Amino acid sequence: MGRRSQSSSSSSTAWRHLSPWYYLKRPARLALLVVGFVAATFASWDRLSLVRDYEAEISRLDEEVNRLYDQLRMAGIYLDDNPNIENIIKKHHLEVDPVNSVRREKVKEAMLHAWNSYVKYAWGQDELQPQSKNGVNTFGGLGATLVDSLDTLYIMGLKEEFKKARDWVAESLEFDKDYEASVFETTIRVVGGLLSAYDLSADKIFLEKARDITDRLLPAWDTSSGIPYNRINLAEGKASNPGWNGGNSILADSGTEQLEFIALSQRTGDQKYQQKVENVIRQFQKIFPSDGLLPININPHSGAVKSYSKITFGAMGDSFYECLLKVWIQGNKTESVKHYRQMWETSMEGLLGLTRKTSSNFYYVCEKNGDSLSEKMDELACFVPGMLALGASGYSPEKAEKIMNLAEELAWTCYNFYQSTPTKLAGENYYFHGGQDMVVGTSWNILRPETIESLMYLWRLTGNKTYQDWGWDIFQAFEKNSRIESGYVGLKDVNTGTKDDMMQSFFLAETLKYLYLLFSPPSFISFDEWVFNTEAHPLKIVTRHGNEGSSGDAEGKDIADYVIQPLGRKHGKPE
What we know:
The protein is mainly α. It has helices at residues 3-18, 26-74, 85-92, 98-122, 144-155, 159-172, 183-201, 204-217, 251-254, 258-268, 272-287, 318-330, 338-354, 384-391, 397-419, 450-462, 466-481, 505-518; strands at 127-129, 134-136, 180-182, 231-233, 239-240, 249-250, 297-298, 310-311, 355-357, 363-365, 367-369, 372-374, 376-378, 429-431, 439-440, 483-484, 487-488, 530-532, 538-540. It contains 18 helices and 19 strands.
C-alpha cells in the first residue's frame, strides 16, 4: 500500500476503538439510522403541521372578525380605526338574532351561487341562460346582470366580487351601440344600478357612466308634449314607440324615470335631467282624473290618454304609482315635492275602488277596461302592499290604520299566490272569477321579487316576524325548484315545475336583495336615509327646496357627503 492508504486505514481503526458505534452489530446500526431519519422527518412534519395549524387559526379568526364586522354593518354601524366596541353595543342596543343570521347567510350564499354562475358562463353579457350555460344580450350588451348586481354585492359585503364588477364597468362598459333600447328598462336597471353603486361606494366611475348613458336616453323626451318615447337607438339617438302599441307611450315606461333623473341632477349639479322628468309629471297633472287612475296608453305628441285603454296596477301601469310616492320620499317630504304625495293619495283612492274580496276573505286589486272591471291581478301588482305600508305614515292616524290593514290583507293574498301551487311558487297572474278564490292564469314564474319586496316593507314597518317567515318559505321554494348547478332558472309552469332557461337580472338586483334585507335589522339601509327605485336600487335621500328643479342641499357638494361610508320591472319574458 502507499503511504496515504496506510494512514487512512490506521485512522479508521482508531476511530472504531473510540466510538460505541463500533461495538454495535451492523443490523443494529442500520436500525438506529432508520430511527434517526424517521424522527427527524416527523419533527419536520410536526413543525410543518404547526405552521399549517397556525395559518388555519389565523384564517378562522379573520373570518370571524369579518363576520362580526358584517353583523355591525347590518345594523348600520361602520367602525373607525379605533372602535370602542362596548360603546357601540351600548349605543345601538345590538341584539343578534340567530335565526335571521342563518337565513341571511343562506341568502348570501344563494347570491354567490347566482353571481359565480354568471361570472363563469356569461361574464359581461346581459343575462345568463343557466341550462345552456351561456350568456345572451337581451338589453343590447350593457352588462345588465352585472350592473344590476353592483349594489347587492356591496350591501352583502362581497368586496372581491364588487371590485371585479367595478373594474369591468370602468374598463369595458360602453354605450355607443346600434341598439334600440327600452328607455324604461335601461333607466331602472343601468342608470339606477350605477347611481346606487355610486351612492354606496362614492366611486365616481359609476357617476360618470350613469351620466353617459342618461345623456344617450335624453332625446326620447324630445316630443311635442315632453312625454317620452319608450325606445331609443343608443348610437344614433333616434327615439320611437313600438308599432304594436299604436305609437302610444306606456304609462309605467314614461312615468318611472323621475327618481333616477332627479338623483343624477342632484349629484352632478346639471338640472337638465330633472327638468325633463318633472315636465312629464306636469303634463300628467293636466290630464289627471279625479280617481287618480291613468290608462296605460298615452299619446306622446298630444299628451292625451287613449280612452278605454286598460287601467292596472300590474304590467305597464304599476311603477308609475310607486314612483309618485317615492319621489316625495326622495325629496325628504318637503313642500317642493308635496304635489307628488297629493297625486299618489288621489291614486290610492282609485285603488280602493278597484279592491275586492273573495268569499274566503282574500283581498285583490282588479284591472279596469273602460267601465268594466276584470277580476285579474298580476303578481307584479304585489308591490302594492309594500307601497301602501310605506305611504301609510303620511296619513292621519285613522286613515293610516285603514291603509296599513289593506296592505296586510293584500300581502296575505300575494303570499297565497305562492302557497296555492304545487311548487309553492307564484304564477304570473291570477283570476278571481265571481269573487271565488284565486286561480292561476298565466302559469310561469320568472323569479319575480314583488311579493318579497312587500314582505320586507311590512316587516320593517310593523315588526311582525310572520312576514319574515313567509319570505323564508318563498326562498326555500326558489331553492327547491329554481336552483340548478349553473345558476337559477324560472319555471315554465308552476304546476308541473318544468324549468325555463333564463336567470333574470332582477333576481340578483331585487329578489335576493329584498330577501337579504328582510332578514337584516331595519337600521341597515334605513328607510330614513334611502329610497329604492323600482329595480330595488337604493338611492340616498337628499332634501329638496324650491320648485325650479334645484338640488337644494346637494348644490355645491359631492354626494359622498351624504353616503354611508363603506366598511374598510319588470318586463321579463320567459323562454
